[in-house]
Predict the 3D structure of the following.
Amino acid sequence: MPMITTAPTGSPAPVQPAAPGSASAPAASAANNAEASGFTGSDFQTFLRMLTTQIQNQDPLNPIESSDFAVQLATFSGVEQQVRTNQLLESLNAQRAGGLDSAAGWIGKEVRTTAPVAYDGRPISLSIEPASGATSVQLVTLDALGKEVQRQTLPARAGEVAWDSRNGAGTALPNGLYSFKLVSLKGEDILHTGAVGAYARVTGAELTSKGVSLILPGGASTLESEVTALRSPA
């Protein structure tokens, strides 16, 4: 009579050994995703070692879902991006603080700027630089809104002039913020039109979204990028 052998009731089916390299497949997929995301450095290597250890010690009857690996990788990505953002902000703050330290040495000195400066009844020193070949120049005065309020004809000579707001008829402009531009002429032809630098004393400095701003008298201010010269007051 033939013998029939049966497995004990309730015994689990034999577990087939995983194919070589199958346990590391999720880790390899995570590595490929990380490379595509640009992850590098020891932090990601530590993450991979932790992920590989997790795979090796998982329950073969209840393996970790691939979606769980994707969630872990996404979480690691978010943390790393936040760390990089914090490092960038720290670097920017250090650069801005360094710029403010250097600007502190300008306080009490005069800067030449193309930004509007304050007129309080005292002459403003302007730097006149005619274009090459100019036979005459026109000094154009603009108010705080950028509107032309005065135009004067000057000799075509480079150097400083003292602007006191009075035109040829002796009419003076009121106190306020003014900027200037120079029109270089050859006969009646315009050769060049450009901003004129005006000197003003620095009374302070502050950080703004555009960089270091130098505080000038009368409510005026200028960015470092608008400064073309620095000197000690006469």
